[in-house]
Amino acid sequence: MADPVRIARLMAILDSAWTGSARDGAPEDAVERAGVRGGRGSALDPASSSPEAIGSDRRNPTTVRRPPLSLTSERLSHVLAGDRGDSGVVRDLHRSPTAAGACGALVHALFRQLVTVGSIDHPMDDGLSALEVDEHGRRLCQWIASLPAAERSELAAEVTRQAHNLVSRWPRLDPTWLPRAKEYLRIALPGGAAELSGSVDLAVGRPGLDVASVALVGISSGVRHPEHRRALHFAALIETLRHPSPPFAVAAYYTRTGEIDVDPVTDDLLDTVAFRVAAGLRILLFPDGEVGTGANGVVPAPHGLSRGYEREPVDGYPTVDAHRCLAIRGTRAGTHR
Amino acid sequence: MNGADILGDPTERIADRRHTSADGSVRGATAAALRQAALAAGDAAGVDRRVTITLSMLRGHGSGTEARPPGSSPFRWQPLFVKRSLGLAALAACTESSYRSPGQAVPAVADQAVTAWSRTGALRFHWEPWLAGLGPGGRAAVLAEAISWASALWSMVDWPRLGGRVTFGGPDDRWTASPRQAVCLRGRVEVRLRSSQSNPRASRVGRDRDDHALISVAGGLPTPNWEAELGYLALVASLRSPGAPAPARVVGLWPASGQCRIVEVDGALLHAACHLTVEVVEAWARAELPDRGSKVAA
């Protein structure tokens, strides 16, 4: 159900990045301290919103804007691991292509094709054809073409193997579930000082309803890594803040093995992500540790921060049939027509 | 405001509004201000320099990521450029025929467009030859982009309920700001809505059929200037057709952030849009013509 209390609670946790109020207490305490609209001086307090950040009068345009702090799941992990994360984007742009990266890009393109048209006939040709349609992909195609024949052949064999896995295991989704292959999510925190952004490889279900109707899926052509699920949990938080209802589940699908990890989206999970985000924002916003930092400028993990990740083995999750999982949940992802 | 808030009829309040936006003096004043800025920019630019001002340029203004005017880099088709026209045609097909979702309509509309072009040589969208030349993977990438874009828009508004009052896409509004045509304003909206309600006040002046609202769709987040930016679309529409009422409302949708913002069009909004447009024209002149830009600033 659409739940204003949930939103207030998540916002209060996020607001603790500015106030530090949720650091030592339970989320309920944070909500009480911050109030539904946020405490005085907080990012959620309309009176404290900076004119430079949001414009003093929306009908009288300002010409100078302060760029908001932009946080992605990857940057958040860097920050919480002790890396300020400022260079994360630059590092990505200049990262040299690798065979694993090329395989991932091709498999992602094939996954998109399968979801969109329902078939993959010639995996390597289709994947390269998909990459060729934009500038970034064209550069990767050139790199693949420059590989020695043996390496290119090995890459093609792995892509073909994973494509066959996809075709044999991935369900055909009913178009009325509104499957969106690659969905971008972005939300500004009140006050305009920070933004959260991310993307998922697949979203199904109609957003904007009062009941949880959306599922978010991320795929990976490599081995299982906790970061995959963290990215999906981060996306679940953004989805919850941008639409009336949270997604009902997030799923990480591994094309190499056909395994899928499904996490129902609960208030507990959302609180955990919100605490992680607040901790990351606090580090980025107060690098000198004005707000509640511990030794060495590192913010202590807030209450519950690591909850949900403690039990996370790299392997050993039960394999769940993707079709069954999505079909069962898909009945809730009904059409509005 | 979340996207669900637009599930009501975006034009429902049109019938109650006063036609202040149609006031000739407002249009005259904004047109005069824009002409003055265009003239100054044109004088600085010389006879060969022209610029088309777009909503993207307004959105980038002041953010440090100024959008370049159309035509400033070599054009090459990519899915990003196809998603809007294909997505809008698919949404029209969804409301007019039996397609139940953009996922069904997009591939069908794309196939029909390519087939029609192959048969007659006529281009409806201009991307038909490019799409026809792609392999299955490339074609799927284009369709996927359009489906995602259209599905996001499809789920934000109850389009079937609006029935035949909706027009998806359509030609851009254009207005040239000076006799020398140095500056052209282009307003591109995704959807136009006509009011279903009869307006007794408007009927007396024969305007009931002209009440309409515009819907604009953008990526990312609303900028701090979102009201003036939406007002720009009403401004261009208003300047283009000085004899007709200006749009009553402009609705902004930002599907990636689930945002829906609505502005009622009045004189203050048109003035704000004019002010922002003049700033962008002046910024263009300064950026393109740094040696002569001081004349514009002066």
Strand content of chain B: 5-15%
Count all strands of chain B and give the number.
8
Low-confidence stretches of chain A: 22-58, 292-337
- Please state the average pLDDT score of chain B: 81
Please give the radius of gyration of chain B in angstroms: 20 Å
| Low-confidence segments of chain B | 1-8, 13-22, 198-209, 293-298
How are the secondary structure elements laid out?
The complex is a heterodimer of chains A (337) and B (298).
Chain A: H1 4-19, H2 27-34, H3 51-54, E1 69-71, H4 73-80, H5 88-93, H6 99-117, H7 123-131, H8 135-145, H9 149-169, E2 180-188, E3 194-204, E4 215-220, H10 226-242, E5 249-254, E6 259-264, H11 267-285, H12 322-330
Parallel strand pairs in A: 1-3, 4-5
Antiparallel strand pairs in A: 2-3, 3-4, 5-6
Chain B: H1 24-45, E1 51-53, H2 55-60, H3 79-96, H4 102-120, H5 128-132, H6 136-154, H7 159-162, E2 166-168, E3 173-176, E4 183-187, E5 191-194, H8 200-204, E6 212-217, H9 226-240, E7 249-254, E8 259-264, H10 267-288, H11 293-297
Parallel strand pairs in B: 1-4, 6-7
Antiparallel strand pairs in B: 2-5, 3-4, 5-6, 7-8
Helix pairs in contact in B: 1-10, 3-4, 3-6, 4-6, 9-10
What this model shows, in words?
- The complex is a heterodimer of chains A (337) and B (298).
- Chain A has twelve helices and six strands.
- Chain A is of the alpha/beta class and 337 residues long.
- Chain A has helices at 4-19, 27-34, 51-54, 73-80, 88-93, 99-117, 123-131, 135-145, 149-169, 226-242, 267-285, 322-330; strands spanning 69-71, 180-188, 194-204, 215-220, 249-254, 259-264.
- The relative contact order of chain A is 0.15.
- Chain A has a domain at 93-169.
- In chain A, strands 1, 2, 3, 4, 5 and 6 form a six-stranded mixed β-sheet that branches.
- By secondary structure, chain B is α/β, with parallel strands linked by helices.
- Chain B folds into two domains: 3-72 and 164-297, no CATH class; 79-157.
- Helices cover 47% and strands 12% of the residues of chain B.
- Chain B has helices at 24-45, 55-60, 79-96, 102-120, 128-132, 136-154, 159-162, 200-204, 226-240, 267-288, 293-297; strands spanning 51-53, 166-168, 173-176, 183-187, 191-194, 212-217, 249-254, 259-264.
- In chain B, β6, α9 and β7 form a beta-alpha-beta unit.
- The longest helix of chain B has 22 residues, at 24-45.
- Residues 1-8, 13-22, 198-209 and 293-298 of chain B have low confidence and may be disordered.
- Chains A and B meet through α6, α7 and β2 of A and α4, α6, α9 and α10 of B.
